[in-house]
Design a protein that fits this description.
Elements lengths: L15 H35 L9 H17 L1 H10 L6 H34 L9 H25 L1 E15 L6 E13 L4 H39 L8 H35 L5 H27 L2 H39 L7 E2 L6 E2 L6 E5 L2 E5 L1
Antiparallel strand pairs: 1-2, 3-4, 5-6
Helix pairs in contact: 1-2, 1-3, 1-8, 2-4, 2-5, 2-8, 4-5, 4-6, 6-7, 7-8
Length: 391
């Protein structure tokens, strides 16, 4: 009989830091997935109900759909990231490694591009309303397609070079086999697998520099510029009008919240990345505190993906407009159906009463519950030589 007395060290790393990070990641995965799926389900329901009238919702509707789709893909990568944190081992294989980098990097690049394009669209609508061509569905589809293509080109080198690499640990796994007449001890070296990008040190350095510029500095600068110009334009416009129906306070607060939320999620994540660039140039060492900060900062882009649907979909007026249009159409449809059903019911009741005898079924008085009887009198008249019965 063979038994294992010493199971050896588990792959799990029971660390307080890792455990404290796992719960927020789990919450972001559940909340972000549920929210983005709800938005996409609502979009499917609206487009299916309105059909040709969906163009009345405006081009912002397209940005909302693409943003929710990208954020959903980002939140789907959280289980991969969380398992690596807890197990310190990659258990999903080579193909899943490439998919993981595709999903995670899409948040760093594609989401930032879509949010910047949405800010540009609002900027053109308020500051340059004469240029209506930018807001056409065809132009919006072209902008979104271009953003996705650029993001795919930037992500492609990492996705294609990603692979699962084996790391040999100094720990060993010991098994004691009970055999007669003497027990035997067998030791195995522990080999861990990790999903790595596969880029060389030089290539990784330049890729990180390009990501900082394209996915962080440029979108943050443009998004801040667009929303500041929108607020200034609205305030300047409201001063020139004696009475204005523009909710300037609500728009200002909403714009500031959206901008600050984006910056609060992006800046803390990218600052450690910039530090890594300087650490590479000047050969600086990385402390344990810096690694903890990196763990916290890496959570913020997932936070943005989990909460974007609230700021850009739930609070969006065009989404509410779509809900109103669908509700009105369903109400009209139910009204027509209800009217038809009432008419059919009355016809069936008349036919049933005409076909019965003169003594109708007993009824009960609603006040005293005394039994009542309804007399049905048939009058036969001749209409064009035919007999007709009237109640």
């Amino acid at each position: 009989m063979t038994s294992v007395h010493s199971p050896g060290p588990s792959m799990q790393v029971y660390s307080t830091e890792v455990t404290s990070f796992s719960l927020p990641y789990a919450f972001l995965f559940i909340f972000g997935t549920a929210g983005n799926v709800a938005v996409l389900t609502y979009v499917f329901f609206v487009t299916r109900s309105l059909r040709s009238s969906v163009t009345a919702l405006g081009n912002t509707f397209v940005y909302m759909v693409v943003l929710s789709g990208v954020d959903l893909l980002v939140t789907m990568s959280i289980p991969f990231h969380l398992s690596v944190m807890v197990l310190e081992n990659w258990i999903f294989g080579q193909l899943a490694c490439k998919i993981y980098f595709l999903l995670e990097l899409s948040n760093k690049i594609c989401s930032s591009f879509i949010l910047t394009a949405l800010a540009f669209d609002r900027y053109m609508a308020i500051c340059h309303p004469e240029m209506k061509r930018v807001h056409q569905m065809r132009q919006t589809a072209a902008i979104v397609t271009g953003m996705i293509c650029i993001s795919t080109i930037l992500i492609a080198p990492v996705v294609f070079s990603a692979y699962v690499k084996e790391f040999h640990s100094d720990d060993i796994f010991t098994r004691i086999l009970e055999k007669k007449p003497k027990a035997e001890t067998i030791t195995y070296p522990i080999v861990k697998q990790m999903c790595v990008d596969g880029l060389s040190i030089t290539m990784k350095f330049w890729f990180l520099c390009a990501m900082v510029v394209v996915a962080f500095l440029l979108p943050c600068t443009l998004l801040t510029y667009f929303y500041v110009r929108i607020i200034l334009r609205l305030r300047r416009q409201i001063r020139t009008m004696l009475q204005s129906r523009i909710p300037i306070k609500r728009i200002t607060i909403y714009t500031l919240v959206v901008t600050l939320f984006y910056l609060a999620c992006q800046i803390p994540y990218w600052l450690p990345q910039i530090y890594l660039i300087f650490a590479k140039i000047f050969r600086l060492s990385l402390s344990r505190d810096f690694i903890k900060i990196t763990y916290v900062a890496h959570m913020l882009p997932f936070l943005a993906a989990a909460f974007n649907w609230i700021f850009y979909a739930q609070l969006n007026s065009q989404f509410k407009k779509g809900l109103i249009l669908v509700t009105e159409r369903m109400h009209r449809k139910m009204t027509r159906t209800g009217t038809k059903r009432v008419a059919d019911t009355m016809d069936e009741l008349c036919i049933e009463m005409m076909s019965r005898s003169e003594e109708a079924p007993n009824c009960v008085c609603p006040n005293c519950e005394h039994p009542l009887s309804i007399k049905v009198q048939k009058i036969s008249t001749s209409v064009n030589g035919n007999n007709a019965s009237h109640v």
